[in-house]
Structure formats: structure tokens, C-alpha cells
Amino acid sequence: MMNARQLPHGALSETEHPPSSLPPHAHEAASFCFVTRGTFRERSRRGDTLFGRDDVIFRFPEERHSNTFLAGTVCFNVLFDPALLTGNHPLLEASRPILRQLLRRSRGGASLLTLEGLLLQLIGETFQAAPVRRPLVAEAQRIIEARFAEPLTARLIAAELSTHPVHLARTFRHQQGRGIGDAIRAMRIEHAKQLLREGWTSLAEIAVASGFADQSHFTKVFREMTGRTQARFRARLCSD
Asked: What's the confidence (pLDDT) of residue 74?
């Protein structure tokens, strides 16, 4: 296994397979397999299929399959809680760009909040979900604005609004043009900028007050979202 991340409601892993075979087996979780290198043959209820680079396979929970790996196959695997499934007709073309982003962010050491948000987006955009009334997004935004300093997640917000987290994540992104995790981080950064304007000097205290796990994470996200460090932000305030 080359790289693995455990999420609150799933798991990510990259696996490299030398030429070999796996006998019939199944996984308890639902899963996506994104082939990033090489080729392999899979036998399942769908028949005998050869998969290669950029192909996506979705497997329902307990779906039996066997594999024959050819030269140097590498797969990115996304497993998740079957309770998150919202339909029976995966749109695999919709999954590919999100899987690429999820792989890139996982390799880059993205936070669990970011990866969990992308996982929910992957499920929401791959499976057809029933429409959600527009006020739901406004209510989610209200919660984010009021409680951004808390350890908020899409699942916690969805539970408070009595809706499915995949429904919420998908609809929020469609209407807002960004994910719930991005909206939470944006609110935290705006709050941190306000504290800097008010003269707070301890980055550790600002990080805690703004909802970040620690100063290091705060510094990383601040630079990503503003394009500068907190010190440069302060310097700009003084020169204006």
C-alpha cells in the first residue's frame, strides 16, 4: 500500500499490484477504484472486463469479484459507508474529475475536513439524488456563519437540518459554487483577518478563536486562501 488515509465515513488508499491474481472476494464497504497506471482484468456479475489507466470501477457492498493484474498496476481506492448511498445508478463519468482531485489532495496532505467534503461530493455527483428545497442551503449557510469556530462537518450540519449529508453537500456546491468545507474555511479566515485588524498578536490564540485545530494548520490555510502570510497581511494593514 503506497498511501492511505482514514476518514470519518470512509478510507482512501493507493495500492500497487505486481503481476498477480486475487481469487473471488468482496468488500463490506461501497467503493470506487480509479486506475492510475497499468491494466488489470476483473471478473464479476457484469462479466469479464479489462480496465486500464483513467478507468473507474464502482463496486456495491459485498459485490464479489476477482482480479488478474498485469504489469505494474496502481489503483486509487475510495471506500465508504454504504449508508451514504443515495441511488442505484452511478454516473462514472461524473466521478472521474472528483477522484482526480481527491487523489491529488490526499497526496498533498489535505485535512480530513477537505477530504471528507470531497468524498461526499463524489457520492452526491455520482448518484442521482432527489431534489432538495432551496431554503436548505440558506439554513446551512446560517449554521456555518454562526458556528464556524466549532468542529463543523457536513454530516453534523445535515443532522441538524434533518437531511442526508450527500444531499446537502451536492446541493450546497451546486448553489454556492463551492463545498461546505470551503465555506467553513472561508468564514474562519475572514474571522481571523478581523482579529488581526483588531490587533491580536498571538497566532495560536487567533487560530483557536477562528476554529482551526492549531497554529500550523491556520498558517497553511491562511496562505492558501489569501496568498500571503499573516505577517504580510499585518504589514499591509499598517501601510494602508
From this structure: 95
